[in-house]
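input
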Amino acid sequence: MLGHWMVETDYRASVQHFVAGLSDYEHEIWCGKYRTYYHALKRLRTDAARDYLCCLYSHTGRPATNQCQILLSFILTGRMGETSLTKWVEIVRTDRMIRALIGVFGNDKPPVPGDYYHFIDRLWTQPWKEQLLGRRDTLPYNHNLKPTDKKPGKGNKWEKTRGTITEECEKLILSEKDFPQYYEVHMQQLFRILGLKPSQAAGLLNGVDTICGDGTCFHEFASPSGCRIGECTCGHKEGDRCACPRHFSDPSATWGYDSDEDIYYYGHTLYTLCVHNNDLAIDLPVHIRTATARRHDSVTGLVALNEYFRVNPDIPFSNLCLDSAHDNYPTYRLCQNFWHINPFIDLNIKRGRPKVIHDTVTIDTDGTPMCQAGKRMVFSGIDRSRNRCKYRCPYAAANQDQNQCPCKGQCSSSNYGRTVYTHPE
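output
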């Protein structure tokens, strides 16, 4: 059960009493290093977080203590850039000002590592029977091999492995069911309580009607080759990936493609939905989602958008900006017909190009075909029965002398000129 929780007023009063008892030298240290952290922590709506966390604890049993202090610790570690939980516990033990910042005063005992892991288990909803991969699990040598495919090239997007997966996501979204492996729901609810709602109340989201989404490559520094268990029995040299079983520090990490650096990377994908406030010139994240590195952004984008609108139905947006990785029919249909927002999506390099279009014809950035001579082809109506747009040769459509075309005899022998059809969706 959830034990004693330090309310916001008690936290602020206790910190002020602690600061009043500091010596002049300690007070100077507090003002130079710790006061900024305190101003950020004292604004948190920890009482609202307590009301939500109550549902994660039973009403009987031994009370869980220091839960508010653990929550403040996790937020403070992010601001201080400390990623090691073991080091953080040692910092809290030796620095009484840090203990005051997280709400531990006097002879109170600070949280131990087991308390932090217990809190994490409360927030992560993955059942124990589904946790198949761990640092102590023995996995085969080919658990996660580096891709051998040719890289798409710098600035180009990695193609989806299955073309129908976005359609499957669309069906699941329309059925209003949760996606499988939705283990972050409690953390997203806490982010809403501690971050989004206070930002909305402070007016940071006022006048903002456009949301943007993109994935970020989160490189993992663990070894993708793992560590062999015991002595190698196959005769390979140390450092070679042999067939012996091994342990992996992060078995959930996978290989993905970083289009900015044109390299394959080992790790995860951090997908973020954010808004931009022009008045304050700041970017604010409104939803954060993690995914495997191999998952395409078109899939993660649909998952993140569906989760955002379900978690935050009272913070709507009118427009959505995405890059060319999200240029697919299900995203357009869901935005326009289900979420009722306007999608602004960069066209991918194929731009809905049917296979019947000749290789000498390119597609401009607005979807208009460009003829072999580099001229924009002329729009010539819509075929409603087949849902496609018709474009004609610019010389033939303008009744000009086609002999003036530099590609005369190479393009089309018809007096009507070359005709190209594209799909307006």
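quick obs: The chain has twelve helices and 13 strands.
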